[in-house]
Amino acid sequence: MTKTTIWTLILTLALTSAALAATDDEKCQKKKLIALGKRELCVQKERGKEVLGKTPDTAKCADKFDKMIAAAEKVVACRWLTNGDGTAIDLNSGLQWELKTDDGSIHDKDNFYQWSASSSGVARNGGAFVDFLGTLNDGASAGGVTTTGCFAEKCDWRLPVIEELADIVDLTAPGCGGGAPCTTIPGETGSVFYWSSTDLLSPPGVAWGVSLFSGPVGSDSKVLAYQVRAVRGGL
Fold first, then answer.
1. What's the pTM?
2. From CA 234, how far away is CA 86, in angstroms rounded?
3. For residue 28, what is the DSSP state?
């Protein structure tokens, strides 16, 4: 998630709160967005030290501002901020996630894709990368200045790394273990297995993934077709 996106959301919430009596949920969201923005500024400042030949310490940014994010939930929990464009911001991490649907579109929860279409299972040439991400990032430009047509007007969608995917698992979610998703992300959730972009260290034809209905991290052959969910920001 970029600094511009974070501060735009903060301003939107501030204006909304000024016009209406802020609810506990809105207050929680605003506090988390401010903490996310400050954390990102801290990270960028630390990374700037590399230009001077110094070693950045981005971990201290997480240590400091993650406490602010946690403190925002003293009254009410607020993890997700829905954007109204088929995406939602994770207010714990700052990542922007694609929301799944049940409408037969590219976002349908029941779409399945191979990680790799190669017999060796090594290349990232399966439908998850070619068809799914290729569609989300399929933008065009009339004048070579502005690109349009990508999903939610963002053209840098990717599959999450395994730790990002596992992070949206919430074993305390209502109904988890009883037939409901073990995640609180809005929208639909497929009940089988979601691919991450992370390879298993060995053998090379296997990648990591997560079942969002039961919670555990697992791995399987990349030539098998499973569900996917796109994310952007971070890394």
1. 0.85
2. 19
3. H
